[in-house]
Amino acid sequence: MVKPSIPKGTRDFTPETLLKRNYIFDIIRQTFERFGFVPIETPAMENLSTLMGKYGEEGDQLLFKILNSGDFLKQVDLSQDQDYRKVASQICEKGLRYDLTIPFARYVVMHRHEITLPFKRYQIQPVWRADRPQKGRYREFYQCDADVIGSDSLLCEAELMLLYDEVFTRLQLPVRIKINNRKILQGLAETVGCSSMLSDITTAIDKLDKVGTEGVRQELQERFLPQEAIDRIMQYLQLSFAELPAFLANSAAGIQGIAEVTQVMDFLASTPLKNELVADPALARGLNYYTGCIFEVQATQLQIGSIGGGGRYDNLTGTFGMPGISGVGISFGAERIYDVMEQMGLFPEKITKTSAVVLFACFDVAAQRFAMPLAQQLRHAGISVEVYPEPVKIKKQLEYADRRAIPHVVILGSEEMASGLLTVKNMQTGQQQQLTVEALISQLTE
RNA sequence: GAGGAUGUAGCUCAGCUGGUUAGAGCGCCAGAUUGUGGCUCUGGAGGUCGCGGGUUCGAUUCCCGUCAUUCUCCCCA
Prior knowledge:
Layout: H1 15-34, E1 38-39, E2 45-47, H2 48-51, H3 56-61, E3 65-67, H4 84-91, E4 92-96, H5 101-110, E5 119-128, E6 140-149, H6 155-170, E7 175-181, H7 182-191, H8 198-205, H9 208-222, H10 227-237, H11 244-247, H12 252-267, E8 276-279, E9 293-299, E10 306-314, E11 326-332, H13 334-344, E12 358-362, H14 365-380, E13 385-387, H15 394-403, E14 408-412, H16 414-419, E15 422-426, E16 432-435, H17 437-444
Parallel strand pairs: 1-5, 7-8, 12-13, 12-14
Antiparallel strand pairs: 2-4, 3-4, 5-6, 6-11, 7-9, 9-10, 10-11, 14-15, 15-16
This protein binds one RNA strand through helix 3, strand 6, strand 10, helix 13 and helix 15.
């Protein structure tokens, strides 16, 4: 006998869980479509050549690689000591996708002739990372991405802010949306005389919420920034957005970044958000492919890290031979949104219930045969119906209805078949009535 | 990659400084109620104490190893 198990960091979803997850996905999907995004899907596996080198050194390590079929050892040169990475590249040509952005870039290039720019796509699919699982972190998890590719306009950024606002409003989950611009951070790096260390600075600043100002200072010291630069960065972190122009006055990039954020705000001037939108100079985001505006969403009532993020990237398709295309996108962290909503009790009561509204409980096979056309009649009236498949004791069948939270049970035996009147039991009140099918239907469809 | 914690019934866990038939709650099954769920009562089933080795007269308990799970850091969603 094999002890049943699933791989580390993966999950089965129970009906209760999946009904709640789908509630979130449905709202996100509907909102994407309301903003004119169209769906695509890409394969779970991509060629490793598509994925490798796109997520940094550590990213390559975190890719799940798929062993070639057939006699994969035939190709391998084991005559001398080899780096395992080299061997891996000889025996694996495919890998599971790590995110939805790179496959999308690949998709755009491959389908360039059938795509009309600007192209607005959304994609809700699982991704895989060979990471060590932790609380709220899995090896298989879903991403919900929407990107606009082929437009430089900051109206896209503004609309994405409205999209975030709409989704979290519908989920009744209060959030703070932060916006900043990579060029502002670049301006900071220039201003403190460390342009070449931009990514060190952004990864350090990114931890501000987690480790505090002293933690950031320490992080910067470990990354060997000059003391003077560190002092000025600490000074920067205290600034409000309004104070940035003075601080970044000598950086063309910095001024450009401020202008971009301001313009996004201008686009939103006459469509106020229901949630908080703040320009936050301290917002960094680790990913290095962002080049313009960057966003992050946090739940305001719970400390749980970000539940969404995104930004503008230039030239994402460049590595696939299609340079000069700019895009901007956002992502929803479905797993964390779920956790927050669960903790705050935001899932509507009715989605946690079973789908069936009526159960037919039959005494014997004759009653079951009698029930079949009645069940169909109810179903055609739009009512979800189950017929209990075994002619066992009514006690047993009522117990089943009780556990599945099915609100109505039709008890069917010789008496009902003779009279043509159905015995309908309301499982909440325990009361029973004798009804014709028509009366039952009209009662349930009121 | 580094460090910690935990593995006992289907689930959540108790089990004293090592001691003879390893317990509880919940769940499950049956009955009280042969055409009626929840509540109650009665009875019942269910355990290689993760696995391997060691110490001992004796190990669920102590030691070592191993596997699994989980948490923190790194990184990320």
